[in-house]
Amino acid sequence: METILITYGTRPFAQRVGRMLSSHYQLAYASSEPFPEILQKQHYHRIPTGSNPTFAHEVLKLCLDKGCQMVLPLGKIELRPLHEARILFEEYGITVLMPDDVTSYFYVGDPSEEVRIVQAGKDVLTDAVVCKSDFSGAGILSDSGENPLLCVV
Hints:
Blueprint: E1 3-7, H1 12-21, E2 26-31, E3 44-46, H2 55-66, E4 70-72, H3 76-84, H4 86-91, E5 95-96, E6 107-108, E7 116-119, E8 122-123, E9 137-141, E10 148-151
């Protein structure tokens, strides 16, 4: 079973996404926000903030240490450094679930609508094509049903 690292793991939105994925994937959570030490024994890990210059390398190190094949960044501040380091992650066989061009998508925070986790345009749970192949990440479809909106905290 593949393992997904979900960032901002202590947030309710991350927990909701985790429950959705838990029947198909093993989960690891990471956060730069303070959380109780006891959670570190339950698949929670500390990472630096997305604005820290070592952020992407620390996330990569965590993925390699924990055997994660995918990273699902849920923090808007994390998108830029992870996008810049995507090729490095791919060299280690780790997929960063985010759009090819993060500037071409609108963002929405913790939506009440059904969230889909998408990899290259396909829902990771159903394998159904839900959007263009340049979109990956946590998303919902726009009102028109054509373009996804990237869900971040």
